[in-house]
Inverse folding.
């Protein structure tokens, strides 16, 4: 029997959740406010910034004049979407085999894949940098896409494995009895049933790849640099660039924020899928 | 007719293709600061004149340092020009990672001798090979508020005051109830942050990083005197939370009228004296950074310069750009288009003596005097085996400087005593220097 929750308790819970949500969102809100201020206003006391200074689009104009936003944006799109799609192509068959035809080592393989995420990236920076140098992949979108695919592959496999495990094997068996080949079974039976889970996997990995700053800063120079490099170019320990840095940050996170806003239902559903049985 | 057209088209096409074949694309890695922004804005003039193009990679100073170090040490070849400092240049040059620029001396129109000798020395190895050409140079001096000094009856020092006299000035000016702190100094940990100031102050107190046998000297009485003074000064007359204030935070505080004194980079003077960006532009003046038991190494020396990595495949084009970007003509161009106050300072003698410069920036002569009084080859009271005023020009210094910076910041925040901070620092420095083979 479901436990009754009093209205008072509900209000308290809502207030706490609202406050926590606001606190988490506050840094982004503050960046947004600063991006519409001049550099001189952006370093004033918080109350003066809010109530005693004008609003301007100067920082956005200055950022666009100095940096090619659309080049960085298109690099971010290509790298994040590309790495997610290649990741899916590898992860779907891998997750299928582990979910429906497990061997005695499946659990070990899964743990081994996850263990690769436990190594600090800087530990493999020099070897990867040298490989990229020798293969001509430095500052290339292709090279970066491959690295981000490999970085996120364990997460994609794990997420898909979790979703596939929720699907009864009998349905796939029935498809096989009806004469479906393995390819048809994965493409026409399994994939449509796992769409919500796959959608959240895709969204989460695009976000992870979009925000990835270690490899994207270290393996690029000018041509393949995505939006993370675009933001980094406005950070400075000498001189005042808070307003421009804020404007650059807003321009960089806006696409992913909008995408996240529209797909939050799928994201939450995907992330909590299988959490409660 | 048709044949003639075809021939004309073919000729035009081959000319275009020929021009295209000579035009090169170079990649320049740089920091985000006012002088480099100006260079980015003016560089299209060089691109237009030569047909070459530049890809700019602009990064935050620490990210740039890490990124360029990684690329140059692995012979990566991602960059054709790097914007590096006086710390890296001699080390990287000695490693053979940078293209020597000695042939710049042969170009009469470039006039290498016009660049201050001291600055050239700072960008050369011990054999005198030049590895980078400077865009601007800086030292440190004291910014002070003339109105506060007048109001509180504080005498402005005629020459170089001692740190004890400086503390008396800070004490007399300290008036937190009216929003004025006696002094604002760097407290944020880092070899390029708090240790830039603390290092020069330690020099003034007679301290040194290493003795002639490379034994770390951080547990010496001189270091103890310097750090004890620093912690006492900042805890009594500094703004709250000063252990997290770096150059930017202090610059903002000073410009907002919150600090009576500030010892920091001469390069901030243009900004502090600009009435559009500073509320204290008309009531700020300067005197030398204080001394104590010695006047050696009491103002730091730093230069941001352009260098060509040995791994670049386009060295000739890169050299051509370097010459243009540090030429007399470039400084003239900046003066004419951005104003003579915005011309990079402390690099060329002819620029610093130009009447247009002196009229636009009356404080420029003070800055040049301060820069020329620094000697990175003789920075301390007692002899040392290294060069560098606020840093030691060895690769191990970054790690040691950062660690000592953290220990000093912890002492300033009251998390440990000065003795503990220096004992930890000494232990760390001994370990690092032993590991690197300097000492046994």
């Amino acid at each position: 029997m479901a436990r009754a929750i009093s209205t008072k308790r509900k209000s308290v819970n809502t207030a706490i959740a609202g406050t926590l949500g606001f606190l988490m969102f506050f840094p982004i809100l503050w960046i947004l406010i600063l991006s519409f201020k001049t550099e001189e206003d952006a370093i004033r006391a918080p109350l003066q910034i809010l109530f005693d200074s004008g609003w301007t689009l100067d920082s956005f104009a200055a950022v666009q004049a100095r940096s090619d936003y659309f080049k960085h944006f298109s690099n971010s799109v290509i790298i994040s979407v590309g790495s997610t799609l290649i990741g899916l192509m590898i992860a779907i068959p891998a997750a299928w085999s582990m979910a429906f035809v497990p061997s005695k080592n499946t659990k070990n393989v899964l743990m081994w894949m996850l263990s690769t995420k436990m190594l600090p990236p800087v530990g493999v920076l020099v070897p990867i940098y040298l490989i990229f140098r020798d293969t001509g992949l430095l500052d290339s979108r292709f090279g970066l896409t491959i690295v981000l695919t490999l970085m996120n592959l364990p997460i994609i496999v794990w997420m898909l494995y979790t979703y596939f495990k929720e699907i009864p094997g009998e349905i796939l068996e029935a498809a096989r009895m009806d004469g479906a080949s393995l390819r048809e079974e994965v493409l026409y039976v399994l994939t449509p049933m796992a769409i919500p889970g796959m959608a959240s996997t895709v969204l989460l990995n695009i976000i992870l790849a979009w925000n990835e700053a270690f490899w994207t800063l270290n393996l690029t120079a000018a041509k393949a640099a995505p939006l993370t490099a675009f933001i980094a170019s406005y950070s400075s320990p000498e001189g005042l660039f808070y307003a421009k840095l804020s404007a650059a940050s807003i321009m960089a996170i806006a696409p992913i924020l909008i995408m996240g806003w529209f797909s939050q239902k799928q994201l939450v559903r995907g992330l909590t899928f299988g959490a409660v049985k | 007719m048709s044949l003639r057209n075809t021939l004309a088209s073919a000729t035009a096409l081959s000319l275009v293709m020929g021009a295209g074949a000579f035009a090169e694309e170079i990649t320049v890695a740089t920091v985000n600061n006012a002088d480099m922004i100006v260079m980015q804005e003016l560089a299209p003039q060089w691109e237009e004149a030569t047909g070459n193009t530049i890809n700019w990679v602009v990064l935050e100073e620490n990210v740039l340092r890490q990124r360029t170090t990684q690329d140059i040490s692995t012979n990566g070849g991602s960059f054709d020009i790097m914007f590096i400092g006086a710390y890296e240049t001699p080390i990287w040059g000695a490693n053979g990672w940078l293209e020597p620029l000695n042939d710049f001396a042969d170009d009469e129109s470039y006039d290498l001798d016009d660049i201050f000798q001291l600055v050239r020395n700072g960008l050369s190895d011990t054999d005198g090979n030049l590895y980078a050409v400077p865009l601007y140079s800086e030292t440190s001096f004291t910014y002070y508020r003339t109105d506060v000094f007048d109001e509180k009856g504080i005498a402005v020092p005629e020459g170089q005051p001692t740190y004890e006299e400086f503390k008396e000035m800070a004490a007399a000016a300290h008036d937190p109830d009216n929003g004025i702190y006696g002094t604002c100094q760097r407290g944020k940990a880092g070899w390029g942050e708090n240790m830039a100031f603390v290092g020069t102050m330690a020099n003034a107190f007679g301290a040194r990083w290493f003795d002639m046998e490379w034994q770390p000297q951080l547990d010496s009485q001189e270091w103890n005197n310097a750090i004890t003074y620093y912690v006492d000064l900042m805890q009594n007359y500094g703004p709250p939370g000063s252990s997290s204030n770096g150059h930017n935070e202090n610059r903002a505080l000073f410009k907002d009228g919150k600090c009576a004194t500030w010892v920091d980079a001469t390069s901030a003077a243009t900004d502090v004296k600009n009435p559009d960006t500073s509320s204290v532009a008309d009531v700020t003046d300067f005197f030398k950074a204080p001394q104590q038991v010695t006047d050696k190494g009491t103002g730091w020396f730093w230069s941001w310069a352009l260098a060509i990595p040995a791994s670049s495949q386009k060295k000739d084009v890169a050299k051509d750009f370097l010459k243009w970007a540090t030429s007399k003509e470039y400084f003239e161009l900046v003066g004419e288009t951005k104003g003579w106050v915005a011309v990079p300072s402390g690099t060329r003698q002819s620029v610093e003596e130009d009447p247009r410069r002196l009229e636009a920036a009356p404080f420029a002569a003070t800055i040049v005097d301060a820069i020329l009084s620094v000697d990175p080859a003789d920075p301390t009271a007692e002899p040392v085996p290294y060069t560098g005023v606020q840093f030691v020009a060895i690769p191990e210094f970054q790690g040691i400087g950062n660690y000592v910076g953290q220990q000093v910041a912890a002492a300033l925040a009251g998390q440990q005593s000065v003795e503990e901070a220096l004992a930890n620092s000494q232990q760390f420095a001994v370990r690092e220097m032993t590991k690197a083979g300097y000492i046994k």
About this structure: Residues 69-100 of chain A form the longest helix (32 residues). The interface with chain B takes residues 39-40, 43-44, 66-67, 125-126, 129-130, 133, 138-139, 217-218, 221-223, 225, 229, 232-241 of chain A (CB under 8 Å). Chain A has a mean pLDDT of 88. The radius of gyration of chain A is 23 Å.
